[in-house]
């Protein structure tokens, strides 16, 4: 399974809920008149590959269906903005645009932790498998004298030190406040924002961490290098999201829930495939800190732990592992 397939399963799991949000919460009649007939959508953290196109087409079709259901005679035009960091391969993205697309496409490079669009210009914002990436590591994790110094671990998973967890939570709260403030400026009143984020899979990070510790014990990696490394991701719970959205006050929560995986990845071959997917997602962070040689060895060793990973997957595959959030601009 390639990384695009893993992301596809995340998107497929959310499609019905996205369609329901559009059908039940998007007031087409109040948003459009004969003089305003362009519907603008943004995919925040779009990456590359076919999944962003599939998600956008699904949203567009759901909106078209709603125009028909509401007996609105306006024929809308659609403009889709594909957003990601400036390091994203936009050339590949645009070379892959579907020839039969029913929208005008634009690229918007830049971090979504900040403004990207003019005020009141977006009708529907979508983000899948992106908001869990922090804008930066919490500073406390980088200070050896801090209570949140995360010695021997690469993430808050399995951290007995509550200060480590709190540091991640605090950074996520700050990032989401900036994110929500920016989107509140950009999304029209009555517009919808859907956020989809992994929830429980973060525990797989411990297998990468154990590979690094094995390399430390074998003298292949300096211990201080591992101690200074933390993966900058936080996987929010419904409670986390509810807190930041309510504190922000610009959006109403229309739906928030944990959902189940669409596929059942449980055997050893699945474990190898899944960890290869995670490598594709994480290797940039690992290489930046450790260099390619150490990172390659750590990933190779983690793949060899597939039996243990498979056992973990069998024990956890039926648990809710994906967070779905539908918000409406007040």
From TrEMBL:
InterPro entries linked to this entry: MeTrfase_7, MeTrfase_capping, SAM-dependent_MTases_sf
Biological process annotations from GO: methylation
GO molecular function: metal ion binding; methyltransferase activity
Coiled coil start-end: none
Top-level division of the source organism's lineage: Eukaryota
Sorted UniProt keywords: Magnesium, Metal-binding, Methyltransferase, Transferase
Family: Belongs to the methyltransferase superfamily. Type-7 methyltransferase family.
UniProt name for this protein: S-adenosylmethionine-dependent methyltransferase
